[in-house]
Amino acid sequence: MKHIYNPNSSVNKLAIASSWQRCRNDYQLSQYTPRPIQRLQDTELTRRQDQLVDFLLGDTKEIQCLAELMQKSQKGLFVAGTDSTLLMGYQEHVSTAFLKPASISPGFCWSEPAASTNAVSLALQEKKSITVEGKSHYYKSFRQFSCTGTPLFDSQNELIGALAIAGRDDDQSQNYIFYQYILSLAAARIQARLFKKHYSDIDTMHLSFAGVGSSADESINALCAVNATGDIVGLTNYAAKLLGYKQHEELINQKVEDVFGLDVDKLASLAGTKINVDIDQGSTVIATPFLPNLNRSKVKASSVKTPKKKLLRDIVGKDKSMLATVDRAKELYKHGVPLLLQGETGCGKKTFAELLHDESSFLNVPFVSIDCTIVDVTKEGVDKFLSELDSLRSLNQTAKQEFAGTIYLKSIDSLPNNLQMSVVSLLKEIDVAVQNDDLESGNKLRVISSIHDEPNELVKQGKLSLELLHHTNGASIVLKPLRKRNDLKFLISQIAIELAKGPVDISDAAYSLLLDHQWLGNFWELRNVMRYSLLGGNGKTIHEVNLPENLRTQVTEKNTENPTPIKISSNSNLDENDPRHLRSTLNSTDWNVSKAARRLGISRATMYRKMKTYQLSRTN
């Protein structure tokens, strides 16, 4: 079980030693003359007990199970509040009657400044399971007792109290370890129940995690919640640690696709299936998606989906060149011309493709998205990719035509050369099908592909085969990054209104900082910043103080004589193909692969492939 420490472990000893130092130096406590332990009035105790039950959503079944177990031992079970006051106690049987005279009973406050070193206050301070055996008590009169405490967390990883077991010290380390185990197990079950209840919306997907080879107990409260648009909206701290992050806040509002390499639709199709997820430093965790309150028979078994009803103006805004680009793209798409979308990460290439499909006359046929950046180069991965291509040939077959629908190939330059030729083979068949059909008929298979950089440069670098370029580039559509658009203020306002579901007042100072920002993450970054800013205020106004710190402290360097716009280009000397720049970026993020990938504008899976190609690891 996670976070189980032997009383003689360095973690346990350090916590107790620090407590002794505080008792001696800060609180001026005498080991021989204990201070009186204060007790709440009965009316206040009752109020606090009711409040605790409310925190637990009216359900104390996990605590009741522990209490029944403790009935068979000479130990008492207690539930404390965040101020170390014992609020609930299960020690009324004869064998534990000795606890009450020692103030180990509901209503008494076991805060460290009064009660000295004890497991309840230490568990709350250290936020981990702690055992204080008899000889480790600062007060000599307490050395006949031992106690073990474990913190309780809610769905948002906030402390709501602690569980504790206390009794006569039996000087048996294996017993202490057992008490830590059952307390940690109960605390994990409580947090998992609160988490699942909090994120029980019908359009929310849950993910549970476990380390490879770990026991089932470890995954009880390793949980993640993802909304219908693929945003991570909830995560327990233990899940964050399994994924290589220090705190859960680092992952909140990130796209699940960026973190795990699979979009929300693909994860939904794998509900109930264990998936291996590569994390930083080459480690692997097992993720299992599941769908609460949803009929699983409705979940599709592939990445084929029908897009939601949207409008292209959601991403086009008022930029005249973008409006012209949309009109041109619609006409070319209508006549079956293969489109190649070019733009930086977060510019909305996939959304653009979905909306072209959604606003066309092909609404009754599916939109199929294939992410070429997650293709594994192993035999199993190659076979899976080829199988996906083969499945497209049977898409909406009819007696008169073989193809019907839209295929979106994301980041085709990420494919190995042999798989690029497999795509070429399929596209040749599609070309013939489109050319033989009446262009004005409704059901055609349309192909839209995407890349990050200029196609001819990709060909020169050997990333994109010339033949694949010829079959995908019927027309090139360039999506401008936010920093080059002349309607950025309008887009900021629209996204704020969309997130707030109503009017939002943005101050001039806040607008100034937002407009000066470079937005290297484009729409993804903009949405995250607006979400953060709205949550930091009252949800209706955004002032300078509500903006993320990096925007408030940014220094915008401008050369008035020869201004040079920032440009993300795959052929610069310091880009994602330069091993020195890769290593520098990894070092700057403390080898957090997800963060490094986002800074370089590439996917996590692509980052791992480049690390393997250039043999980059933290040790070399």
Automatic annotation (TrEMBL):
UniProt biased composition (Polar residues): 556-574
Sorted UniProt keywords: ATP-binding, Nucleotide-binding, Transcription, Transcription regulation
Region of interest: Disordered: 556-579
Matches recorded under Pfam families: AAA_lid_14, HTH_8, Sigma54_activat
Domain Sigma-54 factor interaction: 315-535
One Gene Ontology molecular-function label: sequence-specific DNA binding
UniProt-listed PROSITE patterns: SIGMA54_INTERACT_4
Domain of life: Bacteria
GO biological process, one term: regulation of DNA-templated transcription
InterPro entries registered for this protein in UniProt: AAA_lid_NorR, GAF-like_dom_sf, Homeodomain-like_sf, HTH_Fis, P-loop_NTPase, Sigma_54_int
Name of the protein this chain belongs to: Transcriptional regulator of acetoin/glycerol metabolism
Organism of provenance: Cocleimonas flava
